[in-house]
Amino acid sequence: MQPDSDSNEASYSSSPSSHRQVLSVCVLCAVSLSWFVLWCHLSLSYHNSHPQDSSDDMKKVQRREKNRIAAQKSRQRQTQKADTLHVESENLERVNAVLRRDIRRLREEIKCLTYTLSSHQSTCTLATHKMPAVPPRVVSPRFQQ
Which ranges of the sequence are coiled-coil (predicted)? Predict the structure, then answer.
């Protein structure tokens, strides 16, 4: 399959405008490259003429690296602590739910035993002599529901 002659000519043409585009790209690359070389040269000459600044820069880089590592460790500890607290919170929620179920069950048991006792007292034949009265139990309103 052969491409159209028009599209073939457009893509492979050696027109002056395409040469200008290539030249302008090459000129831009050359300018960028020359600026980069100049920057590297100035940077190297500056660092060679200022050895104290170079060691200060090295110390600054090392300090930043240490600080970055310390911050990372701190964030890890903080995340680990939050995870631990979350797990502990979930465990306490489960324990609390179990205790609330136990409280409901025990209250129902109290109702059943109280009803059984009251129905038994009315028909009990052993109640010939008086039993000492049991003082009423005071329950905090916080635990009454």
Answer: 89-116
User: How far is it, in rounded angstroms, from Cα 104 to Cα 111?
Assistant: 11
Domains in the chain: how many in total? 1
Report CA dihedral (26, 31, 32, 38) to the nearest 10 degrees: 140
∠ CA 114-120-124, rounded to 5°: 145
* 140 falls within a domain: no
Task: Please check whether residue 145 lies inside any domain of the structure.
Answer: no
What is the pLDDT tens value at each position of the chain, 145 positions in all?
Answer: 444 444 444 444 455 566 556 556 565 566 666 777 777 777 666 555 555 677 888 999 999 999 999 999 999 999 999 999 999 999 999 999 999 999 999 999 999 999 999 888 888 887 555 555 666 666 666 655 5
- Rounded Cα distance between 28 and 103, Å, is 83
Q: Which two tokens stand for residue 1?
A: 């399959």
Q: The whole model's pTM is what?
A: 0.43
Contacts of 103 (CB under 8 A, 6+ apart): 143
- Give the separation between CA 111 and CA 144, rounded to whole angstroms: 13
